[in-house]
Amino acid sequence: MRHLTAAAFVAIAAMLPGPALAEWPDKPVRIIVAYSAGGANDLLGRVFADQLSKTFGQQFFVENRTGGGGLIGTEAVARAAPDGYTLQISGMPSHVLAPAMNKNASFDPIKDFTHIAYLGGPPNVFAVHPSLGVNSFKELLALMKSQSDGMQYVSPSIGSVGNMVAEYVADKEKVKLSHIVYRGGGSAIQDLIAGHVKVGSMTLSTTRAHIAAGKLKPVAISSEKRLPQFSDLPTLVELGYPDLVVTTWYSLAGPAGLQREIVDKLNAAVNKAMDLPEVQKHLETEMVQTRKMTPAEATAFMQAEVNKWAPVARRVAAAK
Length: 320
Description:
Blueprint lengths: L1 H14 L3 H5 L5 E5 L6 H17 L3 E5 L6 H9 L6 E6 H10 L11 E8 L3 E5 L8 H10 L4 E4 L6 H13 L3 E4 L4 H10 L4 E5 H9 L4 E5 L28 E6 L4 H14 L3 H9 L9 H25 L1
Parallel strand pairs: 1-2, 1-3, 6-7
Antiparallel strand pairs: 3-10, 4-10, 5-8, 5-9
């Protein structure tokens, strides 16, 4: 009987949370952003870090670990201990495009991470300089087809969502495009509004103010449906590209093997934060489209995006 009682006690004790889990977080939690400060992922990271700090009573702080087109910071998270104290603002740039375009990537975007929550991102727009004389995507496409040397266009950088969307259209329509390479959206948008390059494939958050000022004319957007703020702007779905529903989206992830209880706590806290007025204001200002997902849904979404966009990214990388 003593043996049975002891065995039962051990079994019950094994089901109870251990001290480390019960106390999490008992020290600051870092959220790695694999790109420089000031970008959309950095800003999102800081917004949610602030809310998570309030929720859990411990500091959540952003650490910008740049280099390798997002690979260095992402690899650091993949190698980190799965204890809940190293997280990442993951998403389309770092987990879908970067590893597909770089043969030296040492991580698997699904197997080496625990995907916790979806944060969202802005859709992409095709925007043209008014001097181009184009008033619709149909007219822009006709102009592309008329230029055998390849129409020039800008995007934030090689491997950006804007780069992928433009090359996706070029591949489907069998037109030649010439990508003018920049290291970020800031310098690209300046040349676009100055008219040095006439066509841009950029995020709506980057182009919105210039569209409102009449410096750029949008002709198509990659959102699933038309946006209330741009009700006259057709979606790429409407224009015959059913697969081109895409945003420069971001998410929250940690190393593979992160304890389920921690994942669930973080997911609930992120989804709750999305309802806060101050968070909603930021999301609206940055034109971030979001929806609440469970960890399983966030993982499935990541896998679907890898399946869809990694082949496009590899094709673009091979053509460089």
